[in-house]
Amino acid sequence: MSEPVSEGGQRRARLTRERVLQGALSVADSGGLGSLTIRSLAKELGVKPMSVYYHVANKDEILDALVDIVFGEIDLPVPGRDWRSELRRRAHSARQVLARHRWAIGLLESGSSPGPANLRHHDTVIATLREAGFSAEMTAHAYALIDSYVYGFALQEAALPFEGPESVGEVAEPIMELMGAGEYPHLVEMATSYYMQPGYDFGDEFVFGLDLILDGLERSLGLG
Amino acid sequence: MSEPVSEGGQRRARLTRERVLQGALSVADSGGLGSLTIRSLAKELGVKPMSVYYHVANKDEILDALVDIVFGEIDLPVPGRDWRSELRRRAHSARQVLARHRWAIGLLESGSSPGPANLRHHDTVIATLREAGFSAEMTAHAYALIDSYVYGFALQEAALPFEGPESVGEVAEPIMELMGAGEYPHLVEMATSYYMQPGYDFGDEFVFGLDLILDGLERSLGLG
DNA sequence: ATACGCTAACGTACTTTGTACGAAGGTGCC
DNA sequence: GGCACCTTCGTACAAAGTACGTTAGCGTAT
């Protein structure tokens, strides 16, 4: 028997790189990147801190792997099908994934070399654009534009002190106080007449910009 | 004389909150956020670590202040003038500022309460849009769209392992190796036929997307 | 002038974190 | 049984944030 299960109760499953990374993902999702330490990860896995290092070189390797795992969760477009709806679907998926893993957006700037899921992702998006008739130059333009929008939107969502449509008013109050009397009148007007209205959800702003961008790209494609 | 200059050489200027923040800015610009520690900051200022804490509550307060300093460097649009050129100018300024302080984009997700420069900035942009005839709803749409694009573009620039048009080829080689034989064909084709061409600068992609977005907003404004 | 109290800088030390180094326990093969 | 290995862990150190109390210099009231 190679099963590490002995008498009197289930012995914990063997540690693997997979389990280490899944544990790291879980910890980060629960408490953010700041709560992800080797020690907290070890506790999550039910082992001692230094055991992690047998399966992973260092913490940076964990973070790089997390980025690639997150990329892997994003729906890929299907090259050859209608490029607009495919890219639209991919963009929405990316936003959902980045909203699910709020901490991930901060790791993108690390500049580490991209993982396989990241490369696969890039390759598929490029394929979708090229097959739709975009030139190399227009593909680069379109890709930079779409990803800037998606990442930037995710970044702004991550910067919000709340999530979803829940109680914008409560969190806004201390900020409103900072605005003081009469300074920032336009900001206050927008906040009270729009952002703080019940039911407002910043996430809903996503579709407007995305469709505007896709419209613009379609127009550019027609001209090219 | 309240001058802290004594005999035999210039005594260092008194520490102030201003000098602490400028020093932090300087350290971060030189070596990135990672190199900004209380100890490195103290060394930069020529004092001992704990001296910093007389002028600043903690490190987070320093980081928050840095964000606001960076916001303060962005050109404000002028409400009432042609909104397109004003917002265009502001967007370019924002990109330049965020490229000058690559580390700043990572601080935006911290979700801390915005500083005065940040609020002033928001207020002025909103004013520009409202005076141009945008409804409250369209103002929110436009603002979210433009800032997502600007921040996302800056984020992607910060993620690049190099800066400017310098030697994309050199850095690309190890990445190209990762791509392996035959996987990611479209990505390789784009890289060799476009990104790695001499003179290519990712930063040049900015104008395309920005103009596309402004075009789209102008069209939306006409319909509204 | 002397004492008092405030300001600004600092010294010491504790905590958290990443991780180097090597030992310990188990397992399969000869 | 002995040995090589794979995996886990114990110990310990360095870097970093910062709590706490101390000290030197200065202005002001007595």
Automatic annotation (TrEMBL), chains A, B:
PROSITE patterns: HTH_TETR_2. Residues 14-74 form the HTH tetR-type domain. It comes from the Bacteria. GO terms for molecular function: DNA-binding transcription factor activity; transcription cis-regulatory region binding. SUPFAM superfamilies: Homeodomain-like, Tetracyclin repressor-like, C-terminal domain. GO terms for biological process: negative regulation of DNA-templated transcription; response to antibiotic. Pfam families: TetR_C_1, TetR_N. Keywords: DNA-binding, Repressor, Transcription, Transcription regulation. Residues 37-56 bind DNA. The keyword Repressor applies. This is TetR family transcriptional regulator. It comes from Micromonospora sicca.
